[in-house]
Design a protein that fits this description.
Layout: E1 2-10, H1 14-25, E2 30-34, H2 40-44, H3 47-64, H4 80-94, H5 100-105, E3 108-112, E4 115-117, E5 122-125, E6 128-137, E7 141-143, E8 171-175, H6 179-191, E9 194-198, H7 210-222, E10 226-228, E11 233-238, E12 244-248, E13 255-259, E14 261-264, E15 268-270, E16 303-305, H8 316-332, E17 344-346, E18 351-356, H9 359-366, E19 371-376, H10 381-385, E20 392-397, E21 403-410, H11 417-429, H12 431-437, H13 447-450, H14 477-493, E22 507-509, H15 514-522, E23 528-533, E24 542-547, E25 553-556, E26 561-564, H16 566-572
Parallel strand pairs: 1-2, 1-6, 2-3, 6-16, 8-9, 8-14, 9-10
Antiparallel strand pairs: 4-5, 5-6, 7-15, 11-12, 12-13, 17-18, 18-21, 19-20, 20-21, 22-25, 23-24, 25-26
Helix pairs in contact: 1-8, 1-14, 3-4, 3-6, 12-14
Bound molecules: flavin-adenine dinucleotide (FAD).
Residues 10-16, 33-36, 40-42, 45-47, 50-51, 114-115, 138-140, 159, 180, 271, 275, 307-309, 314-317, 319, 347, 499 line the site of flavin-adenine dinucleotide (FAD).
Length: 573
């Protein structure tokens, strides 16, 4: 039996769900093939469980350190089983949002099966053949376990299996000091495990500003985590008492770390095996990630890829952003491109929020002429009043004084969910603005579009192609225009509350409050705005930098008010 679809989506995680719902909302005939559970990694084994665990751990930590704000500290009673009930409750509450029922109600045909491409225009699912005009690959990624001798025999945990732990491990080794290793290592330590965090690089969070990694290492150590940096793992050996030893070749002599459980978070690999990509000519890189261009097109005509499977930024909101770009491209031959300025957050304490380039990445491009401004939270009034005066904010500008990157590593540096909800609500209400952000030109006269456009920063806001997506010159334009309103609604509808990082690098204004900045610019103050806009996504902040003749820069976010003094500003002028 064979069925015809406008779009077939392979994989029902965030990228696949959002793609399918947008397509159905625009009136396309769409099938979503999912071999396991719709919701994907984010719902079942990623953001939702990890952030639920982190919430419990953070509260335990606050209770222990209540004296920071003048309360009597105490040791919280931690019942791990009940903490895991909270984790499961969170999943169960969110699950209907990603369920097959919701998809079907929206007009998506959900096919529970393993999908395999079978030549151009064909996908095989359980003996049935689906025929498509366009297809989106959204099969995500999976944990990769390094080939360490003896590791497999120690029943290593991964992010897929750690949520099934019946009890809190007394001695836990976390192998890998990336974002997930740091988040989970800190959470388990705060809940009562003795955690050893082993990282082969010389610092944690290697992709972030070095100072952020140092800050996290210092905080973890202060909380009792045994942080081992620059450590090569030799092998894992069983002990007579049922525990295991991890041998490190720490110079001068090797050393053994005894553990009850080991959590391996050394990396993730894209899931492209057995997809039959060779039958349709989709190229993958050496890791197996699907190679895509900025429009998320693969090397095969009509096939797009979104989310973790592309090997680009592995975040839920990025997968959703990809879906919003790829779906109109796939259905309407639009020409949307992915944003280079999507921010992300590592939800450790302190959180590490980042958008754009680090200082060293900027120096690779512009050398010594890069302008860097840093501000510490030790002297920040708001941080002092909260009893959490640690962390920093860092801005990186190019030689033309244009903001090209920002990092906030501080408590609540990644912002809060309340703000995410507010952004989401505002976006639903502002259909016109949203349509504008979704690059639908016929509704460009919304409130946002009427504002005077800010000068473009070429790195973050490249000029739009003249042949605009859904623009008049394109043959698919007529059909696209008739679909735009529904598409805008469909895009607006997609959002998920839990995982949304809202960096408090959200706004950078030239004065204390945005209103003042706007006013002073109206009054003719010299000012430039660079909007670092990851905002085509539900929870993405608008990140703007302003320059003016005033003395200070202020970063404002959920509770960030970071004044950058005049000497720094003088360099930006
Ligand atoms: C512990 C942890 C914490 C995280 N925390 C955050 C966070 O706080 N914020 C954030 O933004 N991101 C976070 N992430 C990352 C986030 O979970 C992923 O980036 C996101 O889920 C990727 O979505 P996706 O749609 O690309 O893939 P997935 O969600 O992995 O979905 C892929 C789906 O495809 C299905 N599939 C695979 N092959 C086939 C096939 N052949 N046929 C049919 N179906 C198939 C799979 O079953 C799966 O359901 C975290 C990840 C982990 C592991």
């Amino acid at each position: 039996m064979s069925s015809r679809y406008d779009l077939v989506v392979v994989g029902g995680g965030t990228g696949g769900l959002v793609s399918a719902l947008i397509a159905a909302g625009a009136g396309a005939r769409v099938a979503l093939v999912e071999r396991d559970r719709t919701g994907g990694e984010c719902l079942w084994t990623g953001c939702v469980p990890s952030k639920s665990l982190l919430a419990a751990a953070a509260l335990a930590h606050r209770i222990r350190h209540a004296d920071a704000v003048g309360l009597t500290p105490s040791e919280p009673k931690i019942d791990y089983a009940r903490v895991m009930d909270h984790v499961r409750d969170a999943i169960a509450t969110i699950q209907p949002h990603d369920s097959p029922q919701r998809l079907r109600a929206a007009g998506v045909e959900v096919i529970p099966a393993n999908a395999r491409f079978d030549g151009p225009g064909h996908i095989r699912v359980d003996g049935r053949e689906l025929r498509w005009r366009a297809a989106i690959i959204a099969t995500g990624s999976g944990p990769v376990t390094p080939p360490i001798p003896g590791l497999a025999d120690s029943e290593p945990l991964t992010t897929d299996t750690v949520w099934d732990l019946p009890r809190l491990p007394r001695r836990l080794v976390v192998l890998g000091g990336g974002p997930i290793g740091c988040e989970l290592g800190q959470a388990f330590a705060r809940l009562g495990s003795h955690v050893t965090l082993v990282e082969q690089a010389e610092r944690l969070l290697v992709n972030e500003e070095p100072r952020a990694g140092e800050l996290i290492a210092a905080r973890l150590t202060a909380e009792g985590v045994d942080v081992r940096l620059g450590s090569q793992t030799l092998d894992v050996r069983p002990r007579r008492d049922g525990a295991h030893e991890l041998w490190l070749d720490d110079p001068p002599a090797g050393e053994a770390i005894v553990f009850d459980r080991i959590l391996v978070v050394t990396g993730r690999g894209p899931l492209t095996e057995h997809l039959g990509l060779d039958t349709v000519g989709v190229n993958v890189d050496e890791r197996g990630a699907v190679i895509v261009d900025p429009r998320l097109r693969t090397s095969a005509r009509g096939i797009y890829a979104v989310g973790d499977v592309t090997g680009l930024l592995p975040f839920t909101h990025v997968a959703a952003h990809h879906a919003r770009v790829a779906t109109p491209n796939a259905l309407f031959h639009a020409r949307g491109e992915i944003s280079q300025t999507v921010p992300w957050v590592t939800f450790t304490d302190p959180e590490v929020a980042r958008v754009g380039l680090t200082e060293s990445q900027a120096r690779e491009r512009w050398g010594k002429r890069v302008i860097v401004i840093e501000s510490d939270y030790q002297t920040l009034d708001r941080a002092i009043t909260a009893g959490e005066a640690y962390g920093f904010a860092k801005l990186v500008a190019d030689p033309h004084r244009r903001l090209v990157g920002a990092t906030v590593a501080a408590p609540a540096g990644g912002g809060g969910d309340r703000r995410a909800h507010r952004v989401g609500r505002a976006r639903r209400e502002d259909q016109r603005g949203l349509a504008h952000r979704a690059r639908l030109p016929h509704v460009r006269r919304g409130t946002r579009a009427r504002r005077r456009p800010a000068p473009r920063c070429p790195l973050f806001d490249p000029p739009r192609p003249r042949n605009h997506p859904t623009g008049a010159r394109h043959p698919a334009a007529a059909r696209a225009r008739s679909m735009t309103a529904r598409l805008a609604q469909a895009v607006a509808f997609q959002r998920r509350p839990v995982d949304a990082p809202v960096p408090s690098i959200a706004r950078l204004w030239a004065h204390r409050r945005p209103a003042q900045a706007v006013r002073s610019r109206r009054n003719g103050a010299r000012g430039i705005d660079h909007e670092l806009d990851g905002a085509r996504d539900r929870a993405q902040p608008r990140c703007a930098a302003s320059r003016s003749t005033r003395r200070t820069f202020t970063i404002t976010g959920p509770w960030t008010m970071c004044r950058i003094p005049r000497p720094g500003l003088a360099r930006l002028r």
